Amino acid sequence: MNNIKIYLLLTLSILLYSCSSKKEIGKGTTQNQIKNDNSAFNGANKLLIGATLNYNDLYSQKGKLYLKDFKYLTTANEAKQPKIHPQPNVWNWKEIDEIVQFANTNKLAVRLHGPISPQASKWAKEDSRTAQELENNLVEFATAFAKHFNNEPSVKWMDVVNETVLGNGDWFGPLPGTNEWENPWLKMGLDENGYPLYILKAFEIATKNATNIKLVYNQHVGLETEMWDKVKRTVLYLRSKGYRVDGIGWQAHLLMGAKRQDFVDNTDATMLKLANLIDWAHQNKLAFHVTELDYLVKDTTVLEAERLIQKRVYQKLVDVLLEKSKNGEVTLNLWDMGERSKDGLGSFQSIYDSNLNPTPAYSVIKEAIEKSK
User: Fold this and answer.
1) Strand (E) positions, 134-260?
2) pTM score, whole prediction
3) What is the rounded CA–CA span in Å between residue 118 and residue 353?
4) pLDDT tens digit sequence for 11-47
5) What is the residue-wise DSSP string for 186-207?
6) Contacts of residue 256, Cβ cutoff 8 Å, sequence gap at least 6
7) What dihedral angle (degrees, nearest 10) is formed by the CA atoms of 207, 83, 140, 180?
């Protein structure tokens, strides 16, 4: 009889401890809780595929095409600092709030592309700005941004920084004037170990104020070894400081920053590098996001032939992502869905042409979506 009493007391103690532990876990938001909260959007062995929409696209034909295929939405420009906080004491949340509401209504998962980096207001890029002025501006914007979206049900990820390192491994910094493509924040300086203070500050603020959102370190260009090695070291350094980094992103603007030689002429070798990078991310408990996929055609007189090459390259890319999604979180975001031209560069191709008719690459994306259901 005594043995039975002891057994019952032990069982009751274990049950009480288990319930108590669960309550303690529920008090705060941990990195694992954030990941579990997103499981409905990115379950095991799934590749989550989506696209960007601009504010003016939401209720257009492009918006209808988007809703036909996608459940993952990335904001294009409306979450960037020039839109939301163009000047000190000037704020404009209207457009981004309407996009988030669109996502809430349609049950979409959102990644906010509003990072600290070249996507800065012109005020921040003026040469007269001091390091202290830039720090004050960064703290103001990053804090307000994180707090504004932290409790939005559709917002699952946010880019904290973007385009931090050049292809040769150097830090990306400021240029004279208010150049469209420059990174003024490097003026804030480096810490004692050579890491930019703006990156540390951005992740410090996001870790503190975006507790319900996964934090992404986004990067551009191609798969240059020197560049990605520096990104890897920086991510691990941020974590050593106690800051949360949940994923790394690669923009994948093919044949612009990502060279034709790598992605068209030596596709298989480059895809192996991509596979290895994703493996590194998953081994370090990081999600991997392809954040801005499109394909630049510089000579539009051969557009149809280039679209077939685009389809082939997209297929190779998607094959890698589908395979690696079996091991961890992987997402793919198309930068726009239609064709867009930019003076001096050429025509950026996605999965629809300028008349919103499907291009050859559409079938690759559509098939990948079906495989991931």
Assistant:
1) 155-161, 214-219, 247-250, 253-254
2) 0.89
3) 29
4) 444 333 333 333 332 233 334 344 334 343 444 569 9
5) GGG-B-TTS-BHHHHHHHHHHH
6) 296, 345, 348
7) 90
